[in-house]
Amino acid sequence: MKNILSLLDYVHSLSKTDKELFSRIYSVSGDLGLLKVPKDIQPWVSSKFGSVEVVESQKIIRVDNRITFESSLFNQLRAKRPIDTNNKTDVESLIKKTENDPFCKPLTNTPRDSFGRVKGKQSISASNIAKYDSHHGLIIFKEHNPLKFSLSSIKDYLETAQKWINKVYKLNPERKFPFIMWNCLWKSGASIIHGHMQTVMAKEKHYGNIEKLKMFSDVYTDLFKADYFNDLFKCHEIIGLGFKKGKNKVLAHLTPIKDKETIIIAKELNDSSKTIYKVLKAYMKMGVRSFNVGIYLNPLDNSWKFPVIIRIVDRGNLSDNTTDFGGMEVFAGTSIISSDPFKIINNIKKEF
Ligand SMILES: [Zn+2]
After folding, report:
1. Which residue among 22, 113, 161, 180 sits deepest, i.e. has the most Cβ atoms within 10 Å of its Cβ?
2. Are residues 77 and 212 in the same domain?
3. In a domain, 338, yes or no
4. How far away, in angstroms, is 145 Cα from ligand 1 center?
């Protein structure tokens, strides 16, 4: 199986045309981190990492997106670790303990928007009590346990989110920049365990990362007379990190924001539920229990047109007391990654 530490070899073996395409967007460099392990801790180092040598000379791969400045560092020691599927926390019983929370009775225990609520078969909207932005909705799942999702429930949640967005836009046409997110369990920033997505609508301009992506993809089109998202996918496909399924493209991101980032590029939101479901199913099998899903949607007046970009990222083990975002991610803008995108894409492919 391919691995991220050999990425440079894979790039070198691409055809001239593919290499040229890959290098438009990505640069890859490899380095060694050298250190000396004192005798006293050598047994511990060996048991933890397999050998002293592998720690004394660590291979590090850096991948940069030349267009968007996203970048990630992959360390051999971290990437070599098997995917840890053991969540020490008994998540299921913790989730069960919080049953009968306000989201279990949304009609009486959550605020509604001034226009009322939108409903699906398996979800209902509410108005967020402490808003990020003036239009901030919740899509509350009928099912309390956020990990008990199905293809039909995800489809329903997204349809309800879309209905909420359409409703807000109809009543407030200046609110034309929608974003959907799903923070699942506490490592992802979710303050309520009960399953829910959130919807926000910006006016005047889209949210920061989406505006940036718009600007960078325009620059790309100016430079290369090509579509950035098509080429982003092709870069992943030629290296073995992307595949197409129906109208969706799936890729294990070369510059993940954090571990196991997958991007789905879809034509329309309503074509994407099956793919989102399958990716999340693969995540569950890899032991992921806390994740963020973020969905970049076009301005509703079609003043510019993107594909629908769905980003899914693992937020780490629920029993860890540390957060996965440290100074590198918060300030330096280069993410430290422990997962290997090649392992991720292989696991995802099994679901398709
Ligand atoms: Zn509940």
Report:
1. 161
2. yes
3. yes
4. 7
List, as ranges, residues with CB under 5 A of the ion ligand 1. 101, 103-104, 144, 194
Distance 109 CA to ligand 1 centre (A): 11
| Ligand 1 mean position, distance from CA 205 (Å) | 34
Please count the structural domains in the chain.
2
Structure token digits, residue 289 = 């229990």
Instruction: Answer yes or no: do 136 and 229 share one domain.
Output: no
- Mean pLDDT in each 10-residue stretch from start to end of the chain (352 residues)? 95 98 98 95 90 92 98 83 63 94 97 97 96 95 98 98 98 97 95 97 97 97 97 98 96 97 96 97 96 97 95 92 90 95 97 96
ipTM given for this complex: 0.99
Q: How far apart are CA 52 and CA 286, in angstroms?
A: 28
340 shares a domain with 215: yes
d(CA 102, ligand 1 centre) in Å: 6
Q: pLDDT digit string (tens) for 192-236?
A: 999 999 999 999 999 999 999 999 999 999 999 999 999 999 999
Length of the chain: 352
Cα distances (angstroms) measured from residue 252 to each of 71, 77, 127, 232, 244: 14, 20, 34, 11, 12
